[in-house]
Amino acid sequence: MPQSPNSPAALSPAAGYSRLQVQSWREGTVAERDDFLAEETPVALIYNSQPHVVMMATPADLEEFAVGFTLSEAIVDRAEDITALSVVARDNGYEISLRIPEQRHAALSDRRRNLVGRSGCGLCGSETIAEALRPARHVPAGVSVAEHALQRALAALREQQAINAITGATHAAGWADRDGQLRIVREDIGRHNALDKLIGAVTSAKLDFARGFAVITSRASYEMVLKSATVGIPILAAISAPTALAVRIAEEAGLTLVGFARGSNHVVYACPARLLHTQKQSKLEPHSA
Question: Does domain 40-132 have CATH number 3.10.20.10?
Fold first, then answer.
């Protein structure tokens, strides 16, 4: 895939946040200090020279965001269908131009999704219920994962949220192999954006979605499950709760959905067969004569 001359990969890690002087009030004491705030900026996605949608996002890893969004929204089926991609910084945001096959662009135009997408929105611009609730693709069987691997990935995810560690304001999505080794982490103010960036990064790294699993620092909403199923992620683990609709879609897609994944605890809401439970042996009380 062609690389943009303005690739966000060339930006410094500070691209996702800014420094601001604030007045801090603590226990009756007022002080001036520096604070670090997550950046939020409009990002316009343009397909075949036709504006499609504007999303509010953290301005880092934007090429990966564009690829992930294009795949997770089923605009194209393969990354190879994106034949050109460029990111251009504007005075008040970014424009990402993509080139896709004309037949896919014609189908996209029919959806008429040229609306602003807020950072917390995953279905912004869908004009009908049918569009919003498109059928989920069935995911491949994929890997089986032991509970200790899930715990390892979650612990590593907490440690690798660089922007959130500074700002306390971003979500993260991580990709782990079957052993729980966290391979890729992406952050954004929007949970959907973070997942799209992760999908784009995994795709760019030419990793097989069926050979690992995703962990996210948010609730598992319907959109998060649908995006994961669309690209073939077999296991999605969230630190917070899923919605009832998300569970139904996960069952329909054959996706293993885990919620409240924190420390050594988690709840499996759909398709538990991929998670291997290590049964703890109870201690036997000594037999008395």
Answer: yes
Tokens of 10: 């060339």
What CATH superfamily is the domain 145-276?
Cytidine Deaminase, domain 2 (3.40.140.10)
Spans of all domains in the chain: 40-132, 145-276
Q: How far apart are the C-alpha atoms of 220 and 223, rounded to whole Å?
A: 8
As a whole number of angstroms, the distance between CA 70 and CA 74 comes to 6
Per the CB < 8 A criterion, the answer to whether 243 and 266 are in contact is: no
Annotated catalytic residue, options 121, 155, 207, 241:
121
What's this model's pTM, rounded to 2 decimal places?
A: 0.86
Question: What is the full per-residue pLDDT of the chain (289 aa) written as tens digits?
Answer: 444 433 333 333 347 888 889 999 998 999 999 899 999 999 999 999 999 999 999 999 999 999 999 999 999 999 999 999 999 999 889 999 999 999 999 988 776 544 445 555 655 545 555 556 678 899 999 999 999 999 999 999 999 999 999 999 999 999 999 999 999 999 999 999 999 999 999 999 999 999 999 999 999 999 999 999 999 999 999 999 999 999 999 999 999 999 999 989 999 999 999 999 876 544 444 544 4
β-strand partners of 79: none
Active site residue 124: no
